[in-house]
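Annotated sample (chain length 278).
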Amino acid sequence: MTTPETQDARAVTSEVTVGVDQRTAFEIFTDEIDLWWVRGPINFHDAARAIGMRCERGVGGRLLELYSADASDALVLGRITTWQPGELLAWQSGVDDVSVAVRFQAVAEGTKVTITATIPPGGADRGGTAWVRVVPSWLGSWCERRDTAQRVPAETGRLGLAIYYTRPVAAARWLAGAFGFGLPDRLGDQDSPEHSWIEFRVGNCSVMLFPRQGDPGEDTQVTHVPWVFVDDLDAHLARARAEGATILTDIHQYGYRSYEAADLEGNHWTFAQARPTQ
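Output written by the structure step:
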């Protein structure tokens, strides 16, 4: 959820139309944020500890990434500056200099939700603009299924699969068309650095697409890597090392904590601790 710093003022925006009235859309966005927010290794600032999301009501309320149920341990993602139910929600980011406004406008199909993130001149964006990218897909999807869905967060399964492609965006579109996978959010038409991680959900399991490295003709090129989420990554690494696994990369953190290893026949594996309950 990190993006480069910027020296020029700019605004980025996106929108989604949901089939509910304005006030309901506002309440879904705020009160049900933990239901529409998608669990995943890169969807939190500290996915190794995060247990959920919360939006406190009213001006001065906080948008929180929770590390404890009582919010005594949490990251303040933003502090609410405008609270107009059914019309406008705005906050100042707690992780960078970004300000975010979410507008709710009545349309024939229900409500158009428009998200605008503004970075001031010389300001930093360290994830504050991510709302523009994720809200249309995640909020829209939840609104479509919330009448029949269980009112519990959808947890990530313990097993995932990473697949490496020369053209990940083209591959994602093909997979969606051929195999019926739901397209991830805002892919665009071309591969670019921002598409270094594309993730499908198949049931509660992740299928992640990454750019392929090296010469496609190399016999040793890695094309598929299983991901396994474990409860105690440090203990897991110690056991793997003691049993003679080849450790390709030691534990490192990018939101989630993970390490890579090779098995007895050289197959690559990634082990991650994205949440303490996984």
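Annotation: The chain has two domains: 10-145, 159-273.
Annotation: The domain at 159-273 is CATH 3.10.180.10 (2,3-Dihydroxybiphenyl 1,2-Dioxygenase; domain 1).
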